[in-house]
Amino acid sequence: MVSRHESADGTIKWLFDVGAGDVIETVFIPEADRGTLCISSQAGCAVGCRFCSTGHQGFSRNLTTGEIISQLWFAEHFLRQHLGKDERVISNVVMMGMGEPLQNYSQLLPALKVMLDDHGYGLSRRRVTVSTSGVVPMIDRLAKDCPVALAVSLHAPQDAARQPGSAQQKIPYR
């Protein structure tokens, strides 16, 4: 862990060193009825969405399955000790930290299966969400391989406008 920042509402953001000068973020968001952990899947991101600061730093590498799962493991153990709890603190996981999860599918899929497995973390499929910028072929594949919840973040309604380097304002909206 490089740093930990805690806000007044209980949100905690960790910055982890994953080697070779790369860092990733993991964020815990507490709410009255759940605790959500936002997990990174890549160091940086190659998509380059204009609204996302991660995309501006560029892409370094995909995280391994172990690096993805270790964020959940670390956060759960830290939170239980920090909050003085014996029972599970993290009830929901969202793959929406740094990176585009569906561009790291070979490492994401086994991590999701560990999160869902009763001998792993034992989360419900309804409590694990993959957030994507809209990698359509991989969305179809995920639906077949591991049907978890899906969130799609689109910053433009047309495919052409979502391409890196596009002049979004020049494309007419219909």
Q: What is the topology?
A:
Layout: E1 3-6, E2 12-17, E3 23-31, E4 34-38, E5 42-44, H1 53-57, E6 59-62, H2 65-83, E7 92-95, H3 105-116, E8 128-132, H4 136-145, E9 149-152, H5 159-162
Parallel strand pairs: 4-7, 7-8, 8-9
Antiparallel strand pairs: 1-2, 2-3, 3-4, 5-6
Helix pairs in contact: 2-3
Describe this structure in a few short sentences.
The protein has five helices and nine strands.
Describe this structure in words.
This protein is 29% helix and 25% strand. The chain contains 5 helices and 9 strands, in the order βββββαβαβαβαβα. β8, α4 (136-145) and β9 (149-152) form a beta-alpha-beta unit. The longest helix is centred in the middle third of the chain and has 19 residues, at 65-83. It is globular. It starts with a strand and ends in a 12-residue tail after the last helix.
Mean pLDDT: 89
How are the strands of the biggest sheet laid out side by side? Answer: 1-2-3-4-7-8-9
Strand and helix order: EEEEEHEHEHEHEH
What is the alpha-carbon Rg in Å? 17 Å
Regarding quaternary structure, what we see is single chain
Largest sheet: 7 strands, mixed
Amount of beta strand: 25-35%
Number of helices: 5
Straight-line distance between termini: 47 Å
> What percent of the residues sit in helical stretches (DSSP H or I)?
25-40%
